[in-house]
């Protein structure tokens, strides 16, 4: 009986190991900075520990036998590794990355909006691109923005003020060091609330550029991701809204 029980335990352990061994680890680049891109990707100690994308993908990919492993990689290296075919996946947008041979984009996962942030003393009602002309606009160094905004910078109709991060921009706005900053809406409000600066700032209702986050994946995962686009489309009705509710931001 004892031997039979041990044999059962051994068989069960072997079965578990086989199951775990059959699961592929799917490394996906979700941020280019050690600070992450909260609340989409929340980082700690150079590792992604949470956020909207991790919450969504953990369950979606696990059901397909893929162990989702979010990673951080500098943008320059990402482009180089993609070109060499060494990246398994990346959360990005078609505006930022030209799809290399052997890679595929999924359907849009979540739409992201860039809006104007300002100190509460400044009026943002009916604020448009024309409202920016002749003014200074804070942005993140190295970022590329919507074509209409980039045209204003190139034509010197708006003075570009570069900051090292979204965190720095929100702080500068709260201190009235700059009047306006262009920041991804959920990111800006997440930072403002985390740093207790939300009461000092507000944001425009209309956006100044938006993009759709998509999963760019290597062709070797085509079988595992078959039908994934349909699942993503169905997310908007259920799981996506539930996940977004965990990361509320001040409107």
Automatic annotation (TrEMBL):
Gene3D superfamilies reported for this sequence: Periplasmic binding protein-like II
Alphabetical list of SUPFAM superfamilies matching this protein: Periplasmic binding protein-like II
Organism lineage string: Bacteria, Pseudomonadati, Bdellovibrionota, Oligoflexia, Oligoflexales
Source organism per UniProt: Pseudobacteriovorax antillogorgiicola
Name recorded for this polypeptide: ABC-type amino acid transport substrate-binding protein
